[in-house]
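Q: How would the C-alpha cells look for this protein?
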Amino acid sequence: MFKCHGTRMCIHMNDICNGVPDCTENDDEFLCLPSSHKCPPSCSCFFLALHCLGTKFSPNGMGKQFFLLVHFHNHTEHNSRLLLSKFVSAVILVAHDCGLKKVCHNSYSAHIAMMNFSSNIIESLMNECFKLSTKIKSLSLNKNKIMHLGRRSLCNLQVLSYLDLSDNNISDFSSSTIGNVVSIFILENNPLQGVSAESFLGLTVKVFKTEKYSLCCVVESISRCTAQKLWNISCANLLSSISGRSTLYTVSFTVFICNVVCVFIHRNPNKKGTEKISTFRHMAISLSFADLTCAAYQIILCIFDTVYRKDFVLKEKVWRSSAFCLVAFGLSLCFSILSPVLLTLLAMARFKLVKHPLGSEFKKTSFVMKNLSGLWSISVIVSISFTLFFTYQGKTIPNNLCSPFFDITHTVISMKVVTWTTVVLKMAAVTIMFVLCQNDE
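A: Here is the predicted structure in C-alpha cell form.
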C-alpha cells in the first residue's frame, strides 16, 4: 500500500503513476515518467537523470522532457537554448561548454534550483534574465564573455545563495543587479574598472571570493573575504586618517600662501628709490619657489583625495598610473634636490660676505643669478629625466603618495639609488652649513 502525504489515506500500488491522482496532494503521481519518456540519442540516462557528452541532436520535433537532473557537456547543437527549454521539470540544469551566446528567456523550468552555464560564450544578461525561474539557489556563469549586466538582471532571484561570475569581462556592477543577500559570491578575474562604492550598496555577502581586496572594502556587509590583504593596503582614502588629512590641507595651503606673499614682498621692496633687488632677495625668492614646488605636490594630493574620497580603494591603480601622480612624483623629487643645495648656497654666501664684506662675488647679482639658474636647471633636468626614465620602464609608482623615496615592493632599484643619493646630498648640505657656521664664529 502507498500512504498519501499529510493524511492517513492509503492507496493500492497499482494506482500509483496511473495518470489519475488519488491522493489529496497528488503525490501518487509525483516523479512518474510518462509513456513518451525516452532517453535522447547518444546520451546516458538513469531514471530522471540525463547526461550528454559531446553529442549533437536537434531539438526540433522533440517533446517535453521530464528529467530532473540535466547535464550537457560539449553539446554542439547551434540551437542549444531551445533544447534546454524542453526540460520543463528540470531542477538541476547544467550546460557546460555548449557554445551558448544568449541565455535570457522565459522557457526554462520554473522548478530549477541549480543552473550552471559555465565555459560558454555568453556576452550579456538582460533585465530579469531568468524571470520565471525564481527558485534558483545556485547560479554559475563563470568562464564566459559577459561584459554587460542589466541593472535588474538577477534581482528577481530572491532565494539565490550561490553566484559565480568569475573569469568574465565585467567592467561595471550595480547593487540592483542581484538581490540583497547572497551567501557565496565569486567575482574573480574581472576588470571591474567602473565599480564604485555605490556598486555594492545594500548587499549582504557571507563569503566573497575575489582576488581584489579593494572590493572587500566596498561591500556593505560581509562576513568573510578570500582576497589576500597586503600590509600596504587598507580600506582608507588616499589620505588615510582624518587628522593627517586636516594637517596636510592646512600645511599645504599655508605654505603656498606664505611663499606667494614672500615672493611678492621681495619683488616689491618697501624702500623707495630702490631699483635693484639685492642678491639675498634673489636667493629668498628662489627658496620660496622651491617651497612652492613642495606645496604644489601636497595640493595635488589634497585635490585627488577630495576627488576620489571613498572610491580611492577601487581607483588606487588608476591613480598611481595617472599623469597627475607622475607630476607629483617629479615635483617631490625636484624639491628634495633643490632645497638642500639652495640652503647650502645661502650659507656659503653668508660666510663669504662675513669673511670678505667688500670683495665677495656674492654681492654681484650676475654671479648669484648664474648660480641659481645652474642649480635650478640641474634640479629640474634631473627630476624630469628620472621621471621620464621611470615612465619609459613601464613601471607604476609603487606608493599612493607618489613619492620617489618610498618603494613598498622593494623591486625598483632606480628608486633606491635616488633615495640614497638624496640622503647623501642632504647630509652633505647639513655638514657644509654646520662647518660654515662654526667658521663664522
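The first strand starts at residue 2 and ends at 3.

The chain has a mean pLDDT of 81.

Upvote if useful.
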